[in-house]
Design a protein that fits this description.
Length: 403
């Protein structure tokens, strides 16, 4: 008897945007590979050559810092390249404990836990802490890793309009019940560059008996006079935030994520968070680089001042020229272009003129709010900041985005 072969449906569902179309018309500039890291926030990119890097999360320009590189090299000589597996069993190194103590000191917390990425730090912390009967309340623009953690937790998941404190209060009032309430928000929003209203969020959390978790992926090294983050920015006490999450992959030029908080919280997470229990420890090089980077931020505080200066200059030039930058106040500058076509066209205009910048389009951001996501860094030379502003303004005029 002849065997019946069942025809399979396509392995991949339809993509949310038309990748092939943008490739065909030459407007696709994603996954382009950097060959060399050059001084002053420049890079050498395969097929393109030297470019000003205007899309990097390395806000303080610490990638390649000699002290951080030296720490990573020393860690290889001392510990080798891997660990012995998961932290709870054989994978813990003295270096991990030192890194966690360093993070706790930087964030003025009792202790800290590190995970293999910022994404899993959010996913695992939220989903292990919150249970059925609890309530999670998130800002609408929170990062995907927070959303995924909420979905995995089985708690009731609600959202408030972006940075809208009246709406947050409504959500808190609605949540009042038997379970625990956790409000989670980004400190700096990754696509808009604005800052959560921490004083008001904190007041409302206290009023309604809710706990507070803040993701500092884009605020460590950037916010506050000495780069210690959002509490320093608002001059608030270190115990304002119950769960202080951050990543080691942006200002900190390494890989990994962390949560800092009370001893009780960290002990719980080290024995209950699935990504800590079932996933290997971060490698010695990453841990050593991250630890050294916290020292460098404190020693070289000129970098924190310089990024604010570079941002102020860049953003005011674009705003004066008529660009809408939303409510950005930090190193992330959303240059609003309108339609997806306009966003990718302005990005291409800049890329052709030696600027590495990406368009962020729907569905990552709302339809009609496609943008260049430009990030200034502390090490960009003033003439490069001006060159980027001049080019974006000229491109914006040529494409009819501004007058
Ligand atoms: C706000 C925010 N949280 C978490 C993450 C995830 O961090 P990581 O890249 O270290 O996984 C990101 C990454 O872009 C982010 O922007």
């Amino acid at each position: 008897m002849q065997e019946v072969i069942v025809k399979r449906p396509p392995l991949t569902p339809a993509t949310l945007w038309d990748i092939d179309y943008y490739k065909e018309i030459g407007l696709y500039f994603y996954l382009e590979a950097t060959q060399d890291i050059l001084p002053n926030g420049r890079v050498n990119v395969e097929h393109y050559g030297e470019m000003i890097m205007l899309g990097s999360y390395s806000y303080l320009g610490l990638i390649g810092h000699p002290e951080i590189n030296a720490a990573a090299k020393a860690a290889v000589d001392h510990y080798g390249t891997g660990t012995h597996g998961v932290r709870l069993l054989a994978g813990s190194l003295v270096l991990h404990n030192e890194l966690e103590a360093r993070i706790a000191r930087f964030k003025q917390a009792d202790d800290a836990i590190t995970y293999s990425s910022g994404y899993v730090a959010n996913l695992s912390t939220i989903s292990s802490l919150l249970r059925k009967g609890d309530t999670l309340i998130c800002d609408k623009l929170n990062h995907a890793s927070i959303v995924d953690g909420c979905l995995l937790s089985m708690a009731k998941f609600t959202r408030f309009r972006h940075n809208d404190m009246d709406h947050l209060e409504r959500r808190l009032r609605e949540a009042n019940g038997d379970g625990r309430i956790l409000v989670v928000t980004d400190a700096v929003f990754s696509m808009d560059g604005d800052i959560i209203n921490l004083p008001e969020v904190s007041r409302l959390c206290q009023k309604y008996g809710a706990y507070l978790m803040i993701d500092e992926a884009h605020s460590i090294g950037v916010l506050g006079e000495t780069g210690h983050g959002i509490e320093e920015h608002f001059d608030m006490p270190p115990d304002t935030i119950d769960i202080k999450m951050g990543t080691l992959s942006k200002t900190i030029p390494s890989a990994g994520g962390y949560v800092a908080g009370s001893q009780e919280l960290i002990t719980f997470l080290k024995h209950e968070a699935r990504a800590f229990i079932f996933s290997a420890a971060i490698p010695p090089t990453s841990a050593a680089a991250a630890k050294a980077a916290f020292d460098v931020i404190e020693k070289e505080s000129w970098r924190v001042r310089q990024i604010q200066e570079n941002y102020n200059h860049f953003a005011s030039r674009l705003r004066e020229a008529g660009f809408d930058l939303l409510y950005s106040e930090t190193a992330i500058v959303p240059v609003i272009c309108g339609s997806t076509d306009r966003g990718v066209a302005l990005a291409k205009y800049c890329q052709d003129r030696g600027i590495f910048v990406q368009a962020v389009v729907a569905p990552v951001v709302p339809e009609g709010l496609a943008r260049l996501r430009a990030c200034v860094s502390a090490v960009h030379a003033p003439e490069d900041v001006d060159y980027c502003a001049n080019t974006i303004i000229a491109g914006g005029r040529e494409l009819g985005i501004i007058e």
